[in-house]
Design goal:
The chain is of the alpha+beta class. It has one domain (3-135): Nucleoside Triphosphate Pyrophosphohydrolase (Alpha-Beta Complex), CATH 3.90.79. The chain contains three helices and seven strands; from the N terminus they run ββββαβββαα. The chain has helices spanning 44-56, 108-113, 122-134; strands at residues 3-13, 16-22, 31-32, 35-37, 58-72, 78-91, 100-107. Strands 1, 2, 3, 4, 5, 6 and 7 form a seven-stranded mixed sheet that branches. A hairpin with a 5-residue loop joins strand 5 (58-72) and strand 6. The longest helix has 13 residues, at 44-56.
Protein backbone atom coordinates (compact mmCIF):
# COMPACT_ATOMS: atom_id res chain seq x y z
CA UNK A 1 0.00 0.00 0.00
CA UNK A 2 1.24 3.47 -0.89
CA UNK A 3 1.34 6.43 1.44
CA UNK A 4 -0.11 9.59 -0.12
CA UNK A 5 0.98 13.11 0.73
CA UNK A 6 -1.63 15.73 1.48
CA UNK A 7 -1.76 19.21 2.96
CA UNK A 8 -4.16 21.21 5.12
CA UNK A 9 -4.27 24.84 6.22
CA UNK A 10 -5.50 26.20 9.54
CA UNK A 11 -6.55 29.81 9.02
CA UNK A 12 -7.78 31.84 12.00
CA UNK A 13 -9.58 35.17 12.03
CA UNK A 14 -11.37 36.77 15.00
CA UNK A 15 -10.86 33.58 17.08
CA UNK A 16 -12.55 31.44 14.41
CA UNK A 17 -11.08 28.73 12.16
CA UNK A 18 -12.00 28.50 8.47
CA UNK A 19 -13.57 25.20 7.41
CA UNK A 20 -14.93 23.99 4.10
CA UNK A 21 -18.10 21.94 3.76
CA UNK A 22 -17.42 18.97 1.51
CA UNK A 23 -19.61 18.15 -1.46
CA UNK A 24 -18.06 14.90 -2.74
CA UNK A 25 -20.34 11.90 -2.46
CA UNK A 26 -18.45 10.03 0.31
CA UNK A 27 -17.75 13.27 2.23
CA UNK A 28 -20.90 15.29 1.55
CA UNK A 29 -21.83 17.75 4.27
CA UNK A 30 -18.77 17.04 6.42
CA UNK A 31 -16.55 19.84 7.71
CA UNK A 32 -12.90 19.79 6.71
CA UNK A 33 -9.88 22.06 6.79
CA UNK A 34 -9.00 23.50 3.38
CA UNK A 35 -6.48 21.18 1.74
CA UNK A 36 -6.04 18.06 -0.30
CA UNK A 37 -3.65 15.76 -2.12
CA UNK A 38 -0.27 16.87 -3.36
CA UNK A 39 0.44 16.56 -7.06
CA UNK A 40 3.44 14.55 -8.24
CA UNK A 41 6.62 16.58 -7.68
CA UNK A 42 4.76 19.50 -6.08
CA UNK A 43 6.40 21.60 -3.37
CA UNK A 44 4.34 21.06 -0.20
CA UNK A 45 4.00 24.77 0.66
CA UNK A 46 2.92 25.57 -2.91
CA UNK A 47 0.54 22.60 -2.76
CA UNK A 48 -1.03 23.98 0.42
CA UNK A 49 -1.53 27.37 -1.26
CA UNK A 50 -3.00 25.75 -4.38
CA UNK A 51 -5.44 23.59 -2.44
CA UNK A 52 -6.52 26.51 -0.23
CA UNK A 53 -7.18 28.72 -3.26
CA UNK A 54 -9.05 25.96 -5.10
CA UNK A 55 -11.30 25.20 -2.14
CA UNK A 56 -11.95 28.70 -0.78
CA UNK A 57 -11.41 31.02 -3.77
CA UNK A 58 -9.30 33.18 -1.43
CA UNK A 59 -5.61 33.90 -1.46
CA UNK A 60 -3.49 32.67 1.46
CA UNK A 61 -0.08 33.33 2.95
CA UNK A 62 1.45 30.25 4.56
CA UNK A 63 3.03 31.39 7.82
CA UNK A 64 4.30 28.31 9.68
CA UNK A 65 3.97 24.54 9.84
CA UNK A 66 1.52 23.19 12.42
CA UNK A 67 2.64 19.56 12.30
CA UNK A 68 2.96 16.36 10.28
CA UNK A 69 0.32 13.68 10.80
CA UNK A 70 0.37 10.08 9.56
CA UNK A 71 -2.95 8.23 9.64
CA UNK A 72 -5.37 5.98 7.81
CA UNK A 73 -8.22 8.01 6.30
CA UNK A 74 -11.92 7.21 6.49
CA UNK A 75 -11.62 5.73 3.00
CA UNK A 76 -8.75 3.45 4.06
CA UNK A 77 -5.90 5.41 2.46
CA UNK A 78 -2.58 5.79 4.27
CA UNK A 79 -1.82 9.51 4.41
CA UNK A 80 0.86 11.88 5.58
CA UNK A 81 -0.69 15.30 6.11
CA UNK A 82 1.50 18.38 6.26
CA UNK A 83 -0.56 20.83 8.31
CA UNK A 84 0.17 24.54 7.91
CA UNK A 85 -0.96 27.78 9.49
CA UNK A 86 -2.07 30.38 6.98
CA UNK A 87 -3.38 33.91 6.83
CA UNK A 88 -6.37 34.44 4.56
CA UNK A 89 -5.91 37.06 1.88
CA UNK A 90 -8.25 38.68 -0.60
CA UNK A 91 -11.19 36.97 -2.29
CA UNK A 92 -10.18 35.96 -5.82
CA UNK A 93 -12.24 36.31 -8.99
CA UNK A 94 -12.78 32.58 -9.33
CA UNK A 95 -15.24 29.98 -8.11
CA UNK A 96 -14.60 27.52 -5.31
CA UNK A 97 -13.86 23.95 -6.37
CA UNK A 98 -17.05 22.19 -7.52
CA UNK A 99 -16.62 19.59 -4.75
CA UNK A 100 -16.88 22.25 -2.02
CA UNK A 101 -20.36 23.34 -0.92
CA UNK A 102 -19.41 26.24 1.33
CA UNK A 103 -16.82 27.86 3.59
CA UNK A 104 -17.62 28.55 7.24
CA UNK A 105 -15.82 30.19 10.14
CA UNK A 106 -16.23 28.14 13.34
CA UNK A 107 -15.34 29.15 16.89
CA UNK A 108 -13.24 26.86 19.06
CA UNK A 109 -16.35 25.98 21.08
CA UNK A 110 -18.24 25.05 17.90
CA UNK A 111 -15.33 22.87 16.76
CA UNK A 112 -14.95 21.20 20.16
CA UNK A 113 -18.69 20.52 20.34
CA UNK A 114 -18.87 19.01 16.85
CA UNK A 115 -19.04 15.21 16.95
CA UNK A 116 -16.07 13.67 15.12
CA UNK A 117 -18.58 12.11 12.67
CA UNK A 118 -19.39 15.64 11.38
CA UNK A 119 -15.72 16.18 10.42
CA UNK A 120 -13.84 14.41 7.62
CA UNK A 121 -11.23 12.34 9.48
CA UNK A 122 -12.52 14.02 12.62
CA UNK A 123 -10.00 12.57 15.08
CA UNK A 124 -7.15 13.97 12.98
CA UNK A 125 -8.69 17.43 12.52
CA UNK A 126 -9.39 17.75 16.24
CA UNK A 127 -5.79 16.77 17.00
CA UNK A 128 -4.51 19.37 14.51
CA UNK A 129 -6.64 22.08 16.13
CA UNK A 130 -5.45 21.08 19.63
CA UNK A 131 -1.85 21.25 18.41
CA UNK A 132 -2.50 24.63 16.81
CA UNK A 133 -3.89 25.97 20.08
CA UNK A 134 -1.18 24.60 22.32
CA UNK A 135 2.17 24.31 20.58
CA UNK A 136 4.78 26.55 19.13
CA UNK A 137 4.80 26.37 15.35
CA UNK A 138 7.64 25.16 13.15
CA UNK A 139 9.50 27.57 10.93
CA UNK A 140 9.04 26.94 7.20
CA UNK A 141 12.83 26.83 6.78
CA UNK A 142 12.62 23.26 8.06
CA UNK A 143 11.11 22.33 4.68
CA UNK A 144 13.75 22.04 1.98
CA UNK A 145 13.35 21.20 -1.68
CA UNK A 146 16.34 19.25 -2.92
Amino acid sequence: MNINGCVSVIAERDSKILFVVEGKKEMEGLYNLPGGRLELGENIVEGAKREFIEETACNVTIMTMNGVYQYKSQTGNSLINFSFVGQVGEKLSREMDKDIKDCMWLTYDEINNLPEEKLWNGHVIKEMIRDYEGKSKTNLELIRNI
